[in-house]
């Protein structure tokens, strides 16, 4: 990513840390305080740009040296959610990442690929809407049941639309999360930028793009609850779909190449 003009850091006279403070919100640090920019002079336009270049991996590694998230805050958040789910006669499922997991790659970020961070915990998480979308996708493709719209809500905008019978909660980590760097290497970058001008041929130079991921073996808690008492049977059905979806299609981004698979450890 290139940026024209001044250095893309806050400039109000204050000094900012050169490394992430021990008590910092990891997501806030990673998204807002990138300090690996270098000036680049465009010879054609004679304008100055700031870019990361091959320093993207260096910035990513500032958040991979230790686990992210305060274990006490995470424990409190998980316990509160578990208590709420039980009070609503919902069910919980505990699962750990079978391989690497990533979500939010499309978010704007200096290293080109972002990550979804919990606004309070400062850890990666999976929003309830994403959990719902994953389970619905699985149910539509592999069950074809007529109750899909009733359970998940109608996609239509006519008078028949309604909310679903099941509430999906955010999937939270159960402990501080280990992060690690990964690399994707597009071989046809010009074709992806402008397929009308550039064919997908092998003459282009591969361009490695580093990005941040959640490591293997990280435990998360998933939860669903009935919207009304009479919807309890739908919760049991959704929990089966959730288990199958996590194990077979995965959650988050890049699931088609094996990311986001989970191993279910148990639940109530």
Automatic annotation (TrEMBL):
Domain of life: Bacteria
Keyword DNA-binding among UniProt keywords: no
CRISPR type III-associated protein domain boundaries: 97-262
Record-given protein name: CRISPR-associated protein, Cmr6 family
Native species: Planifilum fulgidum
Keywords: Antiviral defense
InterPro entries: CRISPR-assoc_prot_TM1791, RAMP_III_fam
Biological process per Gene Ontology, one example term: defense response to virus
